[in-house]
Amino acid sequence: MKIMRLFLIFLFLLSSSSSSAFASYTPAIFAFGDSILDAGNNRFNKNCTAQADFPPYELSFFHHPTGRFTNGRTVVDFLSQFIGIGFQKPYLEAYSAVVNGSQKNFPSNGINFASGGSGVLKETNKDLLYGTETVLTNPN
Description:
By secondary structure, this protein is mostly helical. It has helices at 2-16, 19-25, 75-83, 91-99, 132-137, and strands spanning 29-31, 89-90, 110-112. It has one domain.
């Protein structure tokens, strides 16, 4: 309950400030979480059975599946849009682009590390997903 209260206070402060002024102080967002925040990391992990890269996911905003477990944008997408920065790419997408040379550096507006089905404990969906340590130390 305390976390929810802090989150609501954060949203209130965010909404009461000017979005253009706030963007100058927040150049990037780094997201960690589960399917609520996942921007499509599981789409790049072929060994993961928790996928959202097919209809009806995301048909209302992107008009095609991008791997988000929503019917459009995630909370992080809304925050990014509000403060005036671009949506964060999934970590595994950005990593692949840097490794294969199609992108020189990681995006400057942040990275989304969230993965649908993930959890804090190692035991969370251990049969369906790689753990956070595995994704961060060996993304292939």
